[in-house]
């Protein structure tokens, strides 16, 4: 089989496949800068594949004749995709006999796109999961083979949730491949209702929308953690923001008796409150431009915040409400660890 993936979250699946199957090649993105100060580094999948003795193919695009010929020459009967980060052109979709099987970190058709976990956290979904499906020319529209569900915990960041899904998705991929091999897989077309999109989130999209309700601000910041990283500005200087603690209203939470305008800052001895569209939130840690993370109270003392201090602007972060359709696995057999594979 052929594997295609790039970041850390793809490595658990690659390692599991290498233990049980013959992986003839690993497609991954070319070396890139992974920190501001460092040089170009190979992807985590490239590093793991080389450790496992698997041939690595680092193509910028699969649209060139050279790249396509290299894929065909491998003779793989199936290709497994986990967060590859590049499009598979139509000319290659039918090259493996069993197609390209993608592990997508949502319950399709919810959250089609590049950032399903970030959008699930931002939207307050209580349940998400992962889906295996066969790639087609559309954006995450192919027939579903298997699913598994995962609860979104109240304080999950997108990083927390993605780490769990990357591990929990491994049994789903293995069960999907077993079903394809024995002929019991029953790919099912995705329903037309319940579709939601999860476009890639850029740094420019991660500015904290203080005008939203506290619960939405909390979800927003957690969804941007660790990447691309939530941020705001004070006097024109960018400040990174770690997860915040929302007020709990009548239940006696942070900031219950404090009224602040959206973005307004009130610094106490041990806490820093920021106004939102409803009740304030308490900052946890912050990282001013060019500096390391620190407790918000320590930052506030050094910043010498006066009365009426406020973060610059109130920029809309889009609709942070709503919830995805968690779907239904339908007629299936359990595949362990919450995974279900559609079988005929």
UniProtKB/TrEMBL annotation:
Protein name (record): Methionyl-tRNA formyltransferase
Region entry Disordered, spans: 318-344
EC number: 2.1.2.9
Database matches in Pfam families: Formyl_trans_C, Formyl_trans_N
Cited function: Attaches a formyl group to the free amino group of methionyl-tRNA(fMet). The formyl group appears to play a dual role in the initiator identity of N-formylmethionyl-tRNA by promoting its recognition by IF2 and preventing the misappropriation of this tRNA by the elongation apparatus.
Family: Belongs to the Fmt family.
Reactions catalysed: L-methionyl-tRNA(fMet) + (6R)-10-formyltetrahydrofolate = N-formyl-L-methionyl-tRNA(fMet) + (6S)-5,6,7,8-tetrahydrofolate + H(+)
């Amino acid at each position: 089989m052929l594997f295609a993936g790039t970041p850390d979250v793809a490595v658990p699946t690659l390692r599991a496949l290498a233990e049980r199957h013959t992986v003839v090649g690993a497609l991954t993105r070319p070396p890139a800068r992974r920190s501001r100060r460092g040089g170009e580094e190979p992807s985590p999948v490239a590093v793991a594949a080389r450790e496992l003795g698997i041939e690595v193919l680092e193509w910028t695009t699969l649209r060139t004749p050279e790249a396509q010929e290299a894929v065909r020459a491998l003779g793989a009967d199936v290709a497994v995709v986990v967060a590859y980060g590049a499009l598979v052109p139509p000319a290659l979709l039918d090259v493996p006999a069993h197609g390209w099987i993608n592990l997508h970190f949502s319950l399709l058709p919810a959250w089609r796109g590049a950032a399903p976990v970030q959008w699930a956290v931002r939207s307050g979904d209580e349940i998400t999961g992962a889906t295996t499906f066969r790639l087609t020319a559309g954006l995450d529209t192919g027939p579903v083979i298997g699913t598994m569900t995962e609860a979104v915990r109240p304080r999950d960041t997108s990083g927390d949730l993605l780490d769990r899904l990357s591990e929990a998705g491994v049994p789903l991929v293995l069960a999907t491949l077993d079903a394809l091999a024995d002929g019991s897989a029953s790919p099912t077309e995705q329903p037309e209702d319940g579709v939601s999109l999860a476009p890639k989130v850029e740094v420019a999209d991660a500015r904290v929308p203080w005008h939203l309700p506290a619960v939405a601000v909390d979800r927003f910041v957690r969804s941007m953690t660790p990447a691309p990283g939530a941020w705001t500005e004070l006097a024109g200087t960018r400040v990174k923001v770690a997860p915040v603690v929302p007020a709990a209203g009548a239940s006696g939470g942070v900031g219950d008796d404090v009224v602040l305008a959206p973005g307004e800052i009130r610094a106490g001895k041990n806490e820093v409150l920021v106004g939102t569209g409803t009740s304030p939130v308490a900052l946890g840690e912050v990282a001013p431009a060019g500096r390391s993370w620190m407790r918000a109270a320590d930052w506030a003392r050094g910043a010498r915040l006066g009365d009426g201090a406020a973060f610059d602007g109130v920029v809309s972060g889009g609709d942070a409400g709503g919830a995805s359709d968690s779907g239904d696995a339908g007629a299936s057999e359990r595949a362990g660890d919450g995974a279900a594979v559609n079988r005929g």
